[in-house]
């Protein structure tokens, strides 16, 4: 019996992926029994297609409880990406299957100010997944948006942001059914220009 306990104690760190006795700053999120699949339509996104593809891939690589994929038809999508001439704005989620549909308006004005298209697309997708802005955050936080300035091109969520989205989709019962959502308008203005407008 003691040999079995010792063997199990030796296996636990290997199974859990613990190395060198260093604890992770963010515990691994609890995976649900089934992954929530959200579908999107990018047929009206124009020049944003590559940025959307990369932004979605970044989110899919970071998440355990939700997966984004193109819809089989525009009408069946849970949310859509649309190229616009204004500032980015998005339905604040978490968007869920069977709930209200969301929309990501990818604004050209942010690109004209010098912001990275992939960062914009990934950031706005973060709103669809239920994350709020944190403009005071560092470039390593995707939801810091325009806060770090135009030199920031990070388009990947931080571990904390990914964990929050996984939490948003962790409870299957919480992610079904209709919900009302509000719109988040992101003004991606360069700080020096914002004061003059």
TrEMBL record:
GO biological process, one term: proteolysis
Name of the featured protein: Extracellular small neutral protease
One cellular-component annotation, GO: extracellular region
Organism: Streptantibioticus silvisoli
Family named by the database record: Belongs to the peptidase M7 family.
Transmembrane parts of this sequence: none
Chain segments annotated as coiled-coil in the UniProt record: none
Record keywords, A-Z: Hydrolase, Metal-binding, Metalloprotease, Protease, Signal, Zinc
GO terms, molecular function: metalloendopeptidase activity; zinc ion binding
Entry EC no(s): 3.4.24.77
Signal peptide extent: 1-25
Catalytic activity field: Hydrolyzes proteins with a preference for Tyr or Phe in the P1' position. Has no action on amino-acid p-nitroanilides
Pfam family, one: Peptidase_M7
Cofactor: Zn(2+)
Domain of life of the native organism: Bacteria
Enzyme's top EC category: hydrolase
InterPro entries noted in UniProt: MetalloPept_cat_dom_sf (IPR024079), Peptidase_M7 (IPR000013)
């Amino acid at each position: 019996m003691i040999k079995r306990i010792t063997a199990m104690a030796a296996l636990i760190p290997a199974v859990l992926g613990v190395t060198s006795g260093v604890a992770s700053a963010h515990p691994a999120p609890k995976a649900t029994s089934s992954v929530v699949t959200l579908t999107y339509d990018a047929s009206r996104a124009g020049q944003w297609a590559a940025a959307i593809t990369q932004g979605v891939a970044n989110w899919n690589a970071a998440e355990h409880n939700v997966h984004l994929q193109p819809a089989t038809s525009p009408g069946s999508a849970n949310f859509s990406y649309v190229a616009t001439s204004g500032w980015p704005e998005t339905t604040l989620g978490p968007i869920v299957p069977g709930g209200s549909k969301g929309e990501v308006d990818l604004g050209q004005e942010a690109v004209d100010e010098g912001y990275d298209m992939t960062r914009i697309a990934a950031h706005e997708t973060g709103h669809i997944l239920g994350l709020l802005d944190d403009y005071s955050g560092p470039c390593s936080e995707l939801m810091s948006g325009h806060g770090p300035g135009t030199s920031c091109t990070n388009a990947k969520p931080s571990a904390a942001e990914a964990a929050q989205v996984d939490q948003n989709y962790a409870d299957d019962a919480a992610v079904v059914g209709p919900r009302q959502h509000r719109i988040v308008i992101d003004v991606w203005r360069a700080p020096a220009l914002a004061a003059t407008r």
